[in-house]
Amino acid sequence: MSHETYYVPAQSRWPILASIALFLLAYGAGTLINGLKTQTGDTGLLLLLAGAFMMSLILIGWFRHVINESIDGKFSPQADLSFRWGMSWFIFSEIMFFVAFFGALFYVRTLAVPWLGGEGEKGVSNMLWQGFEAQWPLLTTPDMEQFPGASAVIDPWHLPLLNTAILISSSFTITLAHHALKAQRRSALILWHGVTIILGIIFLFFQATEYIEAYQELGLTLHSGIYGATFFILTGFHGLHVTLGTLMLIIIWLRVLKGHFTPDSHFGYEAVAWYWHFVDVVWVGLFLFVYVF
Amino acid sequence: MNTMTKVEHTEHHGPAAGISRWFYTTNHKDIGTLYLWFSFAMFLTGGCMALMIRAELFQPGLQLIQPDFFNQMTTMHGLIMVFGAVMPAFVGLANWMLPMMVGAPDMALPRMNNWSFWILPFAFAMMLSTLFMDGGAPNFGWTFYAPLSTTYAPPSVTYFIFAVHMMGISSIMGAINIIATILNMRAPGMTMMKLPLFVWTWLITAFLLIAVMPVLAGVVTMMLMDIHFGTSFFNAAGGGDPVLFQHVFWFFGHPEVYIMILPAFGIVSEIIPTFARKRLFGYSSMVYATSSIAFLSFIVWAHHMFTVGLPLMGELFFMYATMLIAVPTGVKVFNWVATMFRGSMTFETPMLFAVAFVVLFTIGGFSGLMLAIAPADFQYHDTYFVVAHFHYVLVPGAVFAIMAGVYYWLPKWTGHYYPETMGKVHFWCSFVGVNLTFFPMHFIGLAGMPRRIPDYALQFADFNMVASIGAFIFGFSQLIFLVLIIKTIRGGSPATPEVWDEPEGLEWTIPSPAPYHTFTTPPEVK
């Protein structure tokens, strides 16, 4: 471990401004959502947009600040390692976020729904909806009026399989780009990184297509019982993470074009690459346990 | 090789002038101070709510507040004490002490550190604002079980959900910072097995935080979806299950209770050796015991749910796994007692709180063992016995340890000794108050008084009256603490760098009060 003078940044306005923006976002979202049923969420929407706008400005400013510090050479290898630990543990926290939803999926599939259907040790719960039969995917819910089940589920061997291929290839292309960065092959870096971004966008396009099909043709919606609920929360949060990852890829691509990275110093690049691998691995889990099995 | 140059930061040697110092600071000591004051404010806020509960329960019958408001008070009291008082207090102590204990110039990520703190006042402003909303504040208990918190919740539940999200973001960033600091910022020679125990326990706590706060975020997100977007995670009519809520919540919730006690173990393990004038007995066994407790915390969650109708194998597994926790915890209690054994003990205020911690936390631990026995829990579940149990581990447990830590390190922070007699008065008032409040709850709980109700049967009247009197003694004696802290900040006899009688640790090698920047050049640890 190296022990040069560690860079302790001077006072900064970004954190408190970011807290205010986060508060506006949260309070706005709460007011908007609470007003959805009564159409009274306008103030909420306004606060939410103000918060989002403020947060975007802050993120741009804060990151610019850090990038300038990095260019000025303020970060020792020890500081670089702090960033690496920070990003690794952040990704771990993201994994645990998905663990909560995967856990919910496994619980309802292996325990809750079979019990409702009268199987197993707690099968007495079948008395709630007598005659309800357990199945997975759950197309006939216990109460079809309140939660009308879907007519069918997404076929894993078309769009989802294609999307799997796309995301896995994108993990390879970003690795090729990273190797090109380390070998100082600039045009290869720009090319492979650009391909990764395009693959990410194609993935998102196909996910959107799939959602439209689910809503319009299959009746697979948020309202269609526990299958729809777990399907949309898992694929939805994954999709949001891919969206964020794609944005990060685009920003880091612009930084590549500006020549911000050297073979020795490119933590920002690696952090985005790690994040991209993380959304890729989560997708493999989704493909297996949400779509196929 | 590396092309980056070494740049020393020279702009700020002392704190900035004026109020802006507290808003923009990146200094771990400033941020520690902010955390500690915030936590104290929340402690008093949550305490006022507790006193409202105890005032209503002073006599049977409804006297002061309506049942719905009573429910709001129990809910907000729990949430504020857990997320607003205990957790931020430990983070505050970590901010102040960890960099000095490992010989680092500051936390690893100082700006993010400030952000972690400043999210909290906004999150709690939002949470407290629900008290003034239509339909009132959340009234479903701090564990917010579905469907009470979904189908039957007041509209303010949406703000509650977003407040929890904000607290989670704050905790995760704080924990990441602490892990990065401990793993990456240690002075040369400060190997892992030389780390002070407060640092070790915080390392493991931070890991627990990063592992379970996202699960809490997940469960409140599922609530939000169920309430507003038509999903059926916790609704059996759509194939979901209300019990699913409890599983996910307690997968977060059980590690969470260790998040609130492991740093307390660390503080007590610092204090007892100093005042027993002996080295800590069994250092490495303390480290392994803490790690074992952290591991076990992930596989015991359903002991909170013995009465919801788990399969028999589930009841057995979670019962035995829970009892297993008694082993590493017993190792710790044994080590503390062995450290004191034949030591040259003196009983300054930090030591009084630490010894009280050992005794009273152990009482809470034993009542926990009773609750771990599934068949017995069928009787105890949702009674005041449970309330007695978790208040014994959290008040004379976690809160006493925090106070012990504050007394122990206050001379280092302020450069002044606190008035010893006043500290002892504070201790004895708190000690008597706490036991008067919570000990009788064991009896009324075993006799069958349910928790979270504003009214009760006549046979519970006497013990409830005692508990209420104790609560007011405990609550008001915290004002002594407040006055003592302000007095110590403003003056007092100057403290030496060691403060105490040859304590161990890097923090005692620097002057008191600790300079604004410490260890800008890392010390050499032998």
TrEMBL record, chain A:
Q: Which InterPro entries match?
A: Cyt_c/ubiquinol_Oxase_su3, Cyt_c_oxase_su3_dom, Cyt_c_oxidase-like_su3, Cyt_c_oxidase_su3-like_sf, Cyt_c_oxidase_su3_a-hlx
GO cellular component entries: plasma membrane
Query: Which principal EC class is assigned to this enzyme?
Result: translocase
Heme-copper oxidase subunit III family profile domain: residues covered: 2-293
- Note the superkingdom of the native organism: Bacteria
Membrane-crossing residue ranges in chain numbering:
12-33, 45-67, 88-108, 189-206, 226-254, 274-292
What EC number(s) are associated with this protein in UniProt? 7.1.1.9
A GO MF label:
cytochrome-c oxidase activity
Q: Which UniProt keywords apply?
A: Membrane, Oxidoreductase, Translocase, Transmembrane, Transmembrane helix
Single Gene Ontology BP annotation: aerobic electron transport chain
The record's Pfam families line, in alphabetical order, gives: COX3
Topology relative to the membrane, per the entry? Multi-pass membrane protein
Q: In the UniProt record, does the keyword Translocase occur?
A: yes
Q: What is its main location?
A: membrane
Annotated localization: Cell membrane; Membrane
Protein family: Belongs to the cytochrome c oxidase subunit 3 family.
In Swiss-Prot or TrEMBL terms, this protein is called cytochrome-c oxidase
Provenance organism: Neptunomonas japonica JAMM 1380
Which lineage is the organism of this entry classified under, starting from the top rank? Bacteria, Pseudomonadati, Pseudomonadota, Gammaproteobacteria, Oceanospirillales
TrEMBL record, chain B:
Q: Name one GO molecular function term.
A: cytochrome-c oxidase activity
The alphabetical list of record keywords is: Cell membrane, Copper, Electron transport, Heme, Iron, Membrane, Metal-binding, Oxidoreductase, Respiratory chain, Translocase, Transmembrane, Transmembrane helix, Transport
Q: Where is each Cytochrome oxidase subunit I profile domain found? A: 22-526
Q: Where is the signal peptide?
A: none
Where are its TM segments located?
34-55, 75-96, 117-137, 157-185, 197-224, 244-268, 280-304, 316-338, 350-374, 386-410, 425-445, 465-486
Report the coiled-coil segments.
Answer: none
Task: Describe which pathway this protein belongs to, using the record's wording.
Answer: Energy metabolism; oxidative phosphorylation
SUPFAM superfamilies linked to this entry: Cytochrome c oxidase subunit I-like
| Recorded GO CC terms | plasma membrane; respiratory chain complex IV
What GO biological process, any one, is recorded here?
A: respiratory electron transport chain
Q: Where in the cell is it found?
A: Cell membrane; Membrane
Q: What class of enzyme is it?
A: translocase
Main subcellular localisation: membrane
The UniProt entry's sequence similarity note says: Belongs to the heme-copper respiratory oxidase family.
Name of the molecule in the record: Cytochrome c oxidase subunit 1
Look up and give the organism this protein is from. Neptunomonas japonica JAMM 1380
